[in-house]
Amino acid sequence: MSLTNDEESAKRALADEAAEAVEGGLEAVSNKRIKLEHDGIADQNLKGIQEEDVGICQYISPSIDGFHGILKQRYTDFLVNEIGMDGKVVYLVDEGFPNSKDRRKERRLMDQKQNSDNVNNDKIDELLLKEEEVSNMKQPKYELKAGHRIELLNFFGEEDLNKIEELFNTGNHMETSKSFDDKATRSKIHKLLREAFQNKLESLTTDSNTLKVALAVKSNRNNRRRNNDHIENGDGSNNSSSGNSNNGKKDGDPNYGLGPIKDHLILTMYKENKETMEVASLLAKFLRIPTKWIRYAGTKDRRGITVQKLSIERLRVDRVNNLNRILKGIRIGSFNYSDTGLSLGNLKGNEFVITIKEVEPYDKSKNLEKLAEDSFKTLKEIGFINYYGMQRFGTFSISTHQIGVKLLQNKWKEAAELLLSDQDLVAPDSVEARQIWKKTRNASLALKKMPRRFSAEFAILKVLEKEKLDDNGDYNDHSYFQGVMQIPRNLRIMYGHAYQSYVWNCVASKRIELFGLQIVEGDLVIIDENIESIDQLNQEDAEDEFVEDIRKNTFIRARPVTTEDIESKKYSIYDVVLPTPGFDVLYPSNPKLKQVYIDIMSKDNLDPFQMSRKVREFSLAGSYRSLIGKVGDLSYYIRHYSNNDESLVLSDLDILRKRQDFEKKKLMNFSLKIIKKLKKWKKIKKNL
């Protein structure tokens, strides 16, 4: 399959924005204008990192001409849904629980619907047609037989019995003036009331052994319970306790029906154009908890719409449920409690819906539909080279793996300079700060203009502004080291991992070039009995981006393939793995392949057999990744459109909102219909 990650049009727009951002210059300390330049910023052929820059240069089926298009032209063109360990895809199916006002409104509508089920609609229609015929019919509200009346008078007396009968007019409730201490007597009275008034009354015993009597409501068990509460309190209020049973819920619903509170709250998180770590930090800020309390099974792409599970420690659902009111581009829901939280790698994979726009064949004479059919057939039947994707290498002109090289070389100043450099392609709102640094070397001035969201650059400048300059007017190497070490730890680790990914990609490309899809002697296969499948290995490796790459208790082992293995066909190309460079991996015994590692890394003055470092974050153990991957449940569609900004697929939130709108409309229409019929029914009853 032949696809590119060509986003030139978007990058050109980015370059134009950057040019506007720097136009007009900046203010220096002396209030003099500093002339700023941004070489190449107006270049309309400006490009960022390309696939070949990070080792991606081979195809599974080079004989297919292929096609090209724009990937992620809008973030809505890239949808990702996590697949849990149970094999189920995680979807956003709700936005938590409604607030008290919405719940009361919803309950009233549901009560109307439930009560309407007890009304014979056929009979209503029949009565409406015969309204004039039945207008003179008279029926008593109840029939109290003489024998029952005598028994009731013996128990209650005439005054209380009159109050009971008056309930049919007032609809209120009453309490007997007489108490009944004998349980058998109370049971007999309850039964008598039901029989005498044809189950149209309900009675309860109070703490003082008097009886409370009210009209019965024909409804389900929950409504009967609410009616009992009405009898008990006399004002319709709910007398549920406000302790742990309702978990702080204002309307008294016990813990939203989630059951006992446990150590971890599991929820579904939907995000648009945001990083997983960014969302975790934001939630932690709003909830006023440490970020480490929020855990997830895997990090998802920033540029896209993604849905995944999160777990939060030591928190009740009522604190989290209301966050949807203030979150932008984030929705949470599907809450439940669990004894255990999530950890990186606790997923089976991800489901993708990817939209590629402006698709054209490389050869204009070829038919796009036929090319797509051939490409996707190859992808489905053979698979794909399991390259590390472009997102691992960043979106600026300087790749994250280039920064990783400097960190692995212990060249702290050069690493910092790369991060702070005025690159050809960089976020427009950081251009001003970068050019100040380039022109003045004044960390304090640059820091004032550097947005906080550029956490690496901001951290370095914040350290340097407090450091003293040396005799050459620069900061010493230790100052730069201190700045680098103030970069958030996960980000520091990512740079080293990016270099490992770069080397892996280069080796994978050379492996395909040398041997194709044939398994050869000296290839590596996993022998670890704890790895159930190659998919599990791939997932563990895919989620290592924010995990320190130093093995402690878990050791995944590999061994070279022998001639006997090949002859017995014990392994296939799908079992072959390649290591990322590290101190705790085995390299392929095939001499040509092993030499590829040496040649690639020697260009950066690094040695694949010397990957330990004094700084722990840059001491990399390495990991294994399968050479060829396969896609499950693959399908594709070709759609024609007229506007590039048009979303061609619906996100989970789009689907949820459409369903909610439909249900609301359906419920409201049903409610209005029932109310209308009930009004007519009441009008008829007055004439009965």
Notes on the protein architecture:
- The protein has 22 helices and 19 strands.
- It is an alpha+beta fold and 688 residues long.
- Helix 12 packs across helix 18, helix 14 runs antiparallel to helix 15 and helix 18 crosses helix 21.
- The longest helix is centred in the C-terminal third of the chain and has 35 residues.
- The protein starts with 7 loop residues before the first helix and ends with a helix.
- The N terminus is likely disordered.
- This is TRUD domain-containing protein.
Tally of helical runs: 22
Q: What would you report as the Rg, rounded to the nearest angstrom? A: 36 Å
The low-confidence parts are 1-45, 127-140, 219-254, 542-553
* Arithmetic mean pLDDT: 79
* Gross morphology: elongated
Distance between the termini: 78 Å
Question: Into which percentage range does the β-strand content fall?
Answer: 5-15%
Quickly give the structural class. Answer: alpha+beta
How many distinct beta strands?
19
Percent in helix: 25-40%
Sheet of most strands: 6 strands, mixed
InterPro entries: PsdUridine_synth_cat_dom_sf, PsdUridine_synth_TruD, PsdUridine_synth_TruD_CS, PsdUridine_synth_TruD_insert, TruD_catalytic
Region (Disordered): 217-256
Keywords: Isomerase, tRNA processing
Domain TRUD: 383-630
Write the layout of secondary structure elements.
Elements: H1 8-22, E1 26-27, E2 33-34, E3 67-71, E4 78-83, H2 100-116, H3 121-129, H4 131-134, H5 146-156, H6 158-170, E5 173-175, H7 183-196, E6 201-205, E7 211-215, H8 221-233, E8 264-272, H9 276-287, E9 294-296, E10 305-313, H10 317-321, E11 330-338, E12 349-354, E13 356-361, H11 368-381, E14 384-385, H12 400-408, H13 412-420, H14 431-440, H15 443-449, H16 455-464, H17 477-485, H18 489-515, E15 524-526, H19 534-542, E16 558-560, H20 563-568, E17 576-579, H21 591-602, E18 624-626, E19 628-629, H22 652-686
Parallel strand pairs: 4-10
Antiparallel strand pairs: 1-2, 3-13, 4-12, 5-7, 6-7, 8-10, 8-11, 9-10, 14-19, 15-16, 15-17, 17-18
Helix pairs in contact: 2-22, 5-7, 12-13, 12-18, 13-17, 14-15, 15-16, 16-17, 18-21
